[in-house]
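so my prof wants the structure for this chain in the tokens format not the other one, which i didnt know existed until like an hour ago. anyway here's the sequence
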Amino acid sequence: MESEGNSEKKMSSKTKKGSNIIPLTGAAALLTLAVSLAITAINNRRNSKKKDLPGCNFRVNLSASEILKLADRIIAKSKEVHDAVASVPLDKVTYKNVISPLAELEAQQFPLVQSCVVPNLVSTSDKVRKASAEAEKKIDAHASSCSNQEDVYGVVKAFAAKEEWMGPDARRYIQCLIRDFERNGLNLTATKREEVQRLRAQIDELSFLYVKNLNDDSTYLLFREDELDGLPTEFLKTLEKVENGMFKVTLKSHHVAAVLELCKIGKTRRLVAMTYGKRSAKVNLSVLEDLVQVRHKFARLLGFSNYADYALNLRMAKTSSKVLEFLEDISSSLSNLANKELSVLKELKKQEEGELPFGVEDLPYYVKKVEQQEFDVDFGALKQYFPVNLVLSGIFKIFQDLFGLRFEEIVDADVWHSDVRVFSVFDLSSGELLGYFYLDMYTREGKYGQTCVVALQNGSVPFNGARQIPVALLISQLQKDIGGIPSLLRFSEVVSLFHEFGHVVQHLCNHASFARLSGLHVDPDFVEIPAQVLENWCYESFSLKLISGFHQVFLIKLYILLKMLTLLSYSSIFIQR
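here's what i got, hopefully its the right format
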């Protein structure tokens, strides 16, 4: 393993064959991108054999049967390790025979688990998605049983009592192990523990069903073109048309957001918002009611007043009463400002739509109207200056410069769809390979409908010292270029993409020793902070020059405009970037 790592470092110091360095932006970036795409197409035709990613154990394009077989092997290996740890006599526990096997099992099996689970988010095959969902259910059930192994809990507790931590990160890892065991009731009496385990199984089953129902929802709405007044022509071109000329609007996030922000017809906005809020309601309402009841019983058995207190126990607030106290304090401080701004929005709606009630679905549209009136902004026109490929090239440049990274595209990597791109990420100064990330940007049938970053492999340093590199996946719902017309982004979409890249870099640049503490596996109060901080670069003149297609004179105008929007966003609770 040591020699392989050194070999990889030597290779990374030079441009690899079949990889493209991403350093350019602006007009040069567009030209480079066009050439890059042409080279990519030629290379893809020449190379029938897909390139493996050294150090990546995430498996791509497994068949339905392969996914189910892999899930069985994962469970069998996990049982073997847990049984071995459980068999260690309490007076002979050591780091090597208790903690190290559990930590290495997590690190090694996580990318294999994700190989089974992720296809449900991205695969174009119904059969594969179904097998992936089945595998996830089996693996989750096994993970739940592992968290209830009293014998493993006893062995870990025995080692913790010795206080031979092997460092602060090991101490934190062991504390997390014990905490998770006890949050499943292993420190309770046998009778209560059995009841907790029964309720935990119900919670897992109901939660899985709830999410599955949402993911399987295929509801759509049909509208005439005049009912979508205000939406740009390029967006309408992306919508499927049925025989009678009606446009098909799905409940995917990119459709819903566009309608709520841009559609001038209040009835359309209201129908989309209400339908989105009620999606899967027929099947999920009873699931949710049962879940609330079961969660409450579960939390009470563990000594909490309610499930909210159980969930918040891992966060800084600790209790629901503290959260409510905070919200009430914020509310009292902002009520006057909120009422003042809401009255402005209501008056705008009255002028445009008459005496109709103002609903929450009207907020995005009329906040945009305020911005347009205050600053003479045409947000539809702004989109033409944010073509997706140029924005992406600029984001690469910014993150490379900020963190001393180098991104290289691997054009012949094995992927699950032709739209997916794969990148190696290197430390700019040392040439060390830090990890990989997959970029699955464009919307398609059967794909997960939200924008997010998914960890595919966590970075870690096992007991033998050979580092495992992290791997991430960024999923978004952008539109592809149509008829030679580039896909254009709303500024809110630019900020969202920048935010998600913050998560990617957070995952890849983390150097935690344990997979459980690595990358995105941080305390829940902190997990969004890096991305939220980094997205503010979208409002700086330097960044705007890299992610927009304006000439310099217009760049200055855009910079002033967006700085004004930044000030407005800080003064208003309604601004949604």
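also thought this was worth mentioning. The chain has a mean pLDDT of 85.
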